[in-house]
Amino acid sequence: MLKTKRQPAGKRLAPMILFLILAVLPGFTSDFQTNLLGKFLCYAIIAVGLDLIWGYTGILSLGHGVFFGLGAYSMAIYMTLSSTGGAMPSFMKWSGLSTLPAVWRPFANPVFAIVMAVLIPMLLALLIGFLTFRNRIKGVFFSIISQALAVIIPLLIESQQAYTGGTNGLTNFRTLFGLNLYSHAGRLTLYYVTFAVLALSFLFCTFLVRRRTGSILVAIRDGENRMRFTGYNPTTYKLFVYCLSAGLAGLAGALYVPQSGIISPTEMGITPSVEMVIWVAVGGKVTLFGAVLGAVLVSVFKFVVSSNVPDAWSYIIGAVFVLVILFLPKGLMGIPEKLKSCFARRKGSPASVVSK
């Protein structure tokens, strides 16, 4: 029988402290910083979903940037139509179109656009997952397939200049539901909406991993064939968690667009997809809190380093990632355990003997 472990009080308290800090932080930041933090919270939503599929289920996806981008484009199309009053955007006229494409028209409805921001990534994940998991493709082979997705989809979007804006993407968003996106109230509202979505996503995924489903996901990661022999169908669970993870990435994309003001194919390619994996690895796999922490801290670190060392920031980020992998395989969440082990070894306590 699969059992779930109860977490120590410290581990239960840490997420509450982090979310409390994030809730009060806009009271001490400028509009620019609030906007920046709002985008980092979008990244944290992706990291929670990615940890679910990678940390808990053992499936490394290197194409989550695609799901993020599809969600972002869905919202961006609505915002573009909203800004033109439902008329055809100027880039379509420059590209030779004479009427608004039929595929764009339903996105004039905000409810449809938000639903599609989640549904389109989930449907794509369902298709890819069904074809791969059903044929028992896993490990590095699945990672390569998911990375190929991050190459193909951005190229496809770039090639359809008349429908997607090509390499320039979709931009120049000023308002959302009548809210000025550049005003203090607009940025604060978007921040707290993103914060609420992150909190709900975190709570839902925490609920999931602490129940029987979470234990099954971990069991699939540790011994898929054994799970199959005991009567479980790993494909169903893997499909479920992959689609859920893609839906969260799409939702994060929809929240990201009004805060960044632009979405282009470069936001959904290989580099952003790998960066998403780095957030989870640095924070700590198999801990949803670690994924949130990693996404926020790595993004803050990247912003600080790229602002001060614009020519070498990518090397520094890469070096930090390598160091964390080498010395902290459990990420930042592994530091307390590492310190405890060091202290026990120094004192020569039984814990050190057990660890040996």
Describe this structure in words.
There is one protein chain. By secondary structure, this protein is mainly alpha-helical. 72% of the residues lie in helices and 2% in strands. The strands form two sheets. The chain has a two-stranded antiparallel sheet. A hairpin with a 2-residue loop joins strand 2 (175-176) and strand 3. Helix 2 (31-56) packs parallel to helix 8 (184-209), helix 2 packs across helix 11 (270-283) and helix 8 (184-209) packs antiparallel against helix 10 (234-260). Mean pLDDT is 88; it is low at 352-356.
- Given the C-alpha coordinates, what overall shape results? globular
- Separation of the first and last Cα atoms: 30 Å
Strand content: under 5%
User: How would you sum up the major sheet?
Assistant: 2 strands, antiparallel
Report the uncertain regions. Answer: 352-356
Strand order of the largest sheet: 1-4
Count of DSSP strands: 4
Total DSSP helices: 15
Computed CA radius of gyration, to the nearest angstrom: 21 Å
Secondary-structure-based class equals mainly alpha
Mean pLDDT over the residues: 88
Listing every helix as H and every strand as E from the N terminus to the C terminus, the arrangement reads HHHHHHHEEEHHHEHHHHH
Summarize the structure.
The protein is an all-alpha fold.
Main attributes of the structure:
single chain; 356 residues; mainly alpha; two-stranded antiparallel ribbon; 2% strand
Describe the secondary-structure layout:
Layout: H1 9-24, H2 31-56, H3 64-84, H4 90-94, H5 110-133, H6 140-159, H7 161-164, E1 170-171, E2 175-176, E3 179-180, H8 184-209, H9 212-229, H10 234-260, E4 262-263, H11 270-283, H12 288-308, H13 313-327, H14 335-347, H15 350-355
Antiparallel strand pairs: 1-4, 2-3
Helix pairs in contact: 2-8, 2-10, 2-11, 2-12, 3-5, 3-10, 5-10, 8-10, 11-12, 12-13
